Amino acid sequence: MFDIEYFRMMPQLFYSFAKELFPSNFTPAPSHSFVKLLEDKDKLLRNYTQNIDTLEHVEGIKSVLNCHGSFATATCIKCGYKCDGKDLEEDIMAQQIAYCPKCNDKPKQPTKPKSSISEGATISSRDFGNEDDDDDEDDDDYGMQRGVMKPDITFFGEKLPDAFDEALLADREQVDLLLVMGSSLKVAPVSDIMGHLPHTVPQIVINKTPILHFNFDVQLLGNADDIVAYLADACGWTLEHPRIPGQSTQSAEFQAQIQKPIESPPPIKVVANVKDASLSGEVETVEKSYDVPKHWVVFPSAVISGKDLMVANGDIPIRLAIDSSDEEDAESYDSDEDEGDALADDIQKLHPSTPAP
Ligand SMILES: [Zn+2]
C-alpha cells in the first residue's frame, strides 16, 4: 500500500484509505503528553517518531523528527509543487485523488487508469517497471502524467529524509538517556538508532511486549499510557490528560487506581509442543519453568508469551526441537497458544481487577 511505484500507478488506491490515516481522525494520547512534559521540563533532546499522524505537533512538542515524513506537507509527484497537508484534506476525506493545482491535468470525467487492480485483475511484473521508465509516456505511470499530490510520508522505495542522519549525528554527542516507546524496532531508520549511540548511554524501552533483538538495560512492559503516568507520578511530576483517571496524576481517582509494576513476578511454566524431526514429525510436549528476566519491569497490562520467556532465557525454540540441527525445524516449533500465554494468566491471578490483555 505504501509502495511508491504502486502510488505512481494507482494513486486512487492510496486515496481510498488515506482518510483512515489522516491526522484529524486522531487525538494525542497520554504518551504524547508525557513527551511534551519532558520537553517542558527541559529534558527532551529530540522526539524521533515513526508516526505519520503529526500528533506530536498537535500536542505542541517542538523538538520532533518525523523519521517517515508526515501528512504536514505534500508534494506534486510531477512538478514538485509543495503545499500544506491541510490543502489535501477535502480530497482525502472525500476519498478522491488530490491533483496538483499547478500542473493539474485532471480528467474532466473520472477515468480509470488501465492498470487498475479492481475486479480481481492480476498485476503483471511489467507494471512494476523500474524508475528508468518514468520518462516514457507509459499508461502505468498515471500519477506522474496527471500531476498527483502525495503527502510527504515516506513510502517504500523512497529515500528517507536527510534530516534523520543529520539529527542522529548531532544528538549522539549530547544524549544521556534513550527512551523508546511503543515500537517493535523492526523498521529502519529507528531500528538503527541503538547501534549509533555510545554504550554508556542507558537504553530503556516501554512496550506492551518484550523486545528480544536488542539489549535494553530496562524493559518497562505494559500499556505505554499507564506506564508514563506511573513514571510521571514517581518523578513527582503532574501529567494531565483527559484519558488519565481524574484527568491528572494528581487526582484522587488516579492515585486510587494507579497501575504499578508487579513486584516479583513468579516463575512461569511454559508448555510447548515440539515436533520431533527424527520420528517423522511426532509431537512431544516439553514443560519448563522460566524466570522473568530481572531487567523486565512487568506492569499488569503487559503481554508476554511463553516463547518470549524461552528466548529471553536463552532457550531458543530450535534447541527444544529434538535431534535437530536442521534450521527448518525451527519452523516446526509450535507453542501451545493457551499455555504459552501463561504469564498473562498468572498476572490476571495476581491482579484480578486488570482486564485481560
Ligand atoms: Zn504539479
Gyration radius (Cα, Å) is 25 Å
**CATH architectural grouping of the domain at 4-36 and 51-57 and 67-153:** 2-Layer Sandwich
Which range does the strand content fall in?
A: 15-25%
Provide the structure class: alpha/beta
Strand order of the largest sheet: 6-7-8-11
What would the CATH topology of the domain at 4-36 and 51-57 and 67-153 be?
Answer: SIR2/SIRT2 'Small Domain'
Helix content: 25-40%
Cα shape:
globular
Order of helices and strands: HHHEHEEEHHEHEHEEHHEEEHHHEHH
| Assembly context of the chains | single chain
Looking at CATH, the homologous superfamily of the domain at 4-36 and 51-57 and 67-153 is SIR2/SIRT2 'Small Domain'
3D architecture notes:
With 357 residues, this protein is α/β, with parallel strands linked by helices. Among the domains are: 4-36 and 51-57 and 67-153, SIR2/SIRT2 'Small Domain' (2-Layer Sandwich), CATH 3.30.1600; 268-350, no CATH class. 29% of the residues lie in helices and 16% in strands. It is built from 15 helices and 12 strands. The protein has helices spanning 4-9, 11-21, 30-40, 55-59, 89-93, 142-146, 163-171, 190-196, 224-234, 252-257, 306-312, 317-320, 328-332, 337-340, 342-350; strands at 47-49, 64-66, 69-76, 82-84, 149-153, 178-181, 203-207, 218-221, 268-276, 282-290, 296-298, 334-335. The strands form 4 sheets. The protein has a 4-stranded parallel sheet with strand order 6-7-8-11, with no helix packed on it. A 3-stranded antiparallel sheet has the order 4-3-5, with no helix packed on it. It has a 3-stranded antiparallel sheet with strand order 10-9-12. β9 (268-276) and β10 (282-290) form a beta hairpin. The chain is globular and about 65 Å long. The two termini are 29 Å apart. Residues 111-138, 321-342 and 347-357 have low confidence and may be disordered. Residues 76, 78-79, 81, 100, 102-103, 147 line the site of zinc ion (ZN). It comes from Linderina macrospora. This is NAD-dependent histone deacetylase sir2.
